[in-house]
Amino acid sequence: MGKKRKHSETADVAVPKKDEAAPERPARTLLGWKDKSEVNGDVEYDDSPVFRNKEKVLVTCSRRINYRYRHLMLNVVSLLPHCKKDNKVESKETKGATLNELVELKNCSSCLFFECRKGKDLYLWMGKCPNGPSVKFLVSAVHTMEELKLTGNHLKGSRPILTFSTNFEKDSHWKLLKEMLLQIFETPKDHRKAKPFHDHVFVFSIVDDHIWFRNYQIDVPHNETDKLPRGGLEQMNLVEVGPRFCLNPIKIFGGSFGGPTLYENPFYVSPNQIRALEKQKKSGKFAKKVKAKTRRKMHEMSNPLEPDEFAEMWKE
Amino acid sequence: MEGPLANDDTMIDGEAENLSEEMSASESESDEDVKLTEPSKTAVYNRDALLDKLGDISWPENVGWIHTLYIDIDQEQEVDVNDDFTRELAFYNQAFEGTKQAYQKLQSMGLAFLRPPDYYAEMVKTDNHMQKVKGRVLAEKRKMEEAEERRKAREAKRLAKEIQAQKTKERAKQKKQDIESVKKWRKQRQQSGFAALGDDADLGFAFEDGKSFERSKGKRPGVSPGDRSGGKGKQAFGKGKTQKKREFRNSKFGFGGRKGMKKQNTADTTYDVKGFNKGEGKGNNKRKR
To answer: Residue ranges of region Disordered (chain B) (predicted)?
Structure first.
């Protein structure tokens, strides 16, 4: 495993390495890896130096995860051919360290960790390892691909087209999130398991400070594979494939699963607190009743009734 | 790891997790994902560090679009989160726009991007699952069609009933009219003292001549007014063999049915000579030979 360097540094190193191509295997960096054409002598420099997306995502979950969230995780695994699914992780306090180790072991560059608490709330940790930022989201509005109302289907492993709404440029934390989503969800171009055509599209959009995810199959009547028929775009039809979920960013950390907090969502209320508030409201009913009773008693005591003239009428 | 967070927005101590200030916002909407009405004042927002990190992780600037394949779409209007339909429509439009632009780019690059219909490879949903989906879609369609048919049948039935009601009303009216006209005629005749026998002028009224007669004739053809056998209805009941039997019996025994099954030589009939000679005709003539 090559030393992980910042991108700006490798740019300088890649050029001198070209000469050593024949005798020695060059070190493996994100920008390294000789292109075959370079060995032959004719160099292509459309993006210099040659960029290779070597993103690998580790997908795991915590123990005691709900069936619905487990299916969501499996759906995500099927959508990302460049991911590795791993066994359940004990959700202890040291989970940051455990996860970092796992990622190192599996030789991955980012991680998606589905943490389910109380069997009800799903938190998604998304992080770039080893020193990248990480985000914790609260996931809601989950619909998996198994729902019969989501009728679309697409090739497993085909590269998706990602669409982001321009809201992502509004603020720096959105920009960071956009970059992370891009890197994690976009299948690398020459990945082993990637299939050739582009027949589905992801939608990430920000509504009400939440990130909404949708996945649509593109259905265009066509005859040739590289040219749209005339008027083809008008007959294009998008069918939803799923899954669907909604992410609420809670915190962004500087390190991988830890480190200094760079961003906190000021509007976030944890689901536990919501439930606690509800309970309080309900419990308030009884307390109010008791209070009302005592108040009535006090009132009666302080304003005694005048004796009733007819009270003795029927007494013998 | 990072440089000193020298920003006004940062927290002094690391207990930023303790969001106890949010208890004040008890006026939260009753939703699954509740938002605070006022932002918590202790929230960290370190813009510089965020942008720093962004610089760290981004891919180099000159990476071709083909690697990232992303499109930015402008979301024109504010979408209301709770209005499901418009929200989904906004997402759909975003996807549509994005695909259009992406396809145009891909086409200009000359890459193959449309899946040919005979390209069979593993799909993200299994064939079994797609069968279930198809079944459900068909079932829904069938339900809708059945509902439509039922509604149409109900409408048609109602219409037919109305028409029939009208027809019977008309017929009843007509019948009433006819009877009334006969009564009137009789009254008139009574009044004019049965004198106007040859007077056709009186007759030339409400019978609507031949029309009503014909109608009744049309209803029961082959029945003469003097026939008391119950008309075609009775005859038509037992078609074929029973009809023939009936005819034979009628002819043999006349009215009253079978006399033969009763006792013939009883004490009374021994000395009954009524039917001796004349009875021959009675016995033989009516039987069709």
So the answer is: 1-39, 142-195, 209-289
Residue A112: the pLDDT is 92
For the record, the structure tokens of B272 come out as 């009954």
How many A×B Cβ pairs under 8 Å? Answer: 261
Contacts of B60 (CB under 8 A, 6+ apart): A7, A11, A31, A47, A51
Provide the pLDDT confidence category of residue A19 given band limits of 50, 70 and 90.
very low
Is the confidence at residue A20, as pLDDT, over 60?
no
The closest CB to that of A148, out of B64, B68, B132, belongs to B132
- Could B95 and A238 be called an inter-chain contact, meaning their C-beta atoms sit closer than 8 Å? yes
Q: Which residue has tokens 């775009």?
A: A233
Phi/psi-derived region of residue A121, left when phi > 0, alpha when psi is between -120 and 50, beta in every other case:
beta
Distance CA B175, CA B163 (A): 18
Residue type, A123: Y
- Choose the mutation target among A268, A270, A280, A282 for the interface with B, i.e. most B CBs under 10 Å: A268
Q: Give B136's pLDDT tier (boundaries 50, 70, 90).
A: very high
DSSP A112: E
Angle between helices B47-57 and A172-185 (to 10 degrees): 20
Rounded CA separation A300/A292 (Å): 12
More confident residue, A205 or B197: A205
Element holding B18 (H helix, E strand): none
Mode of pairing for the β-strands spanning A210-219 and B70-73: unpaired
Quote the pTM value: 0.63
Are A257 and A100 a contacting pair, CB within 8 Å? yes
Contacts of A6 in chain B (CB under 8 A): 56
**Over the range B160-172, which residues count as b (16 or more CB within 10 Å of their CB) and which as e?**
eeeeeeeeeeeee
Q: How far is A110 from A100, CA to CA, in rounded Å?
A: 10
pLDDT in tens, B224-244: 666 666 555 555 555 567 778
Query: Looking at per-residue confidence, does A242 or A83 come out higher?
Result: A83
Strands annotated E in chain A: 57-61, 83-85, 110-117, 121-128, 134-143, 161-165, 200-207, 210-219, 237-240, 244-255, 258-264
CB A125 within 8 A of CB A113: yes
pLDDT at A275 over 70: yes
Query: Does residue A38 carry a pLDDT above 70?
Result: no
**Selected residue with higher pLDDT from A245 and B215:** A245
Q: Determine, for residues A212 and B91 on separate chains, whether the beta-carbon distance falls below 8 Å.
A: yes
Characterize the bridge pairing of strands A237-240 and A210-219. antiparallel
Burial classification of residue A31, based on how many CB atoms lie within 10 Å of its CB (0-12 exposed, 13-18 middle, 19 or more buried):
buried
Which tokens hold the place of B98? Answer: 């994005």
Residue type, B104: Q
- What is the least distance, in Å, from the CA of B151 to any CA of chain A? 27
Find the residue in B nearest to A191 (Cα): B67
Question: Can you give B222-233 as a three-state secondary structure string?
Answer: CCCCCCCCCHHH
Q: Per-residue confidence at B4, pLDDT binned at 50, 70, 90?
A: very low
Q: Which one, of A107, A125, A93, lies nearest residue A28 by Cα?
A: A107
Report the run of H or E that residue A149 belongs to, with start and end: none
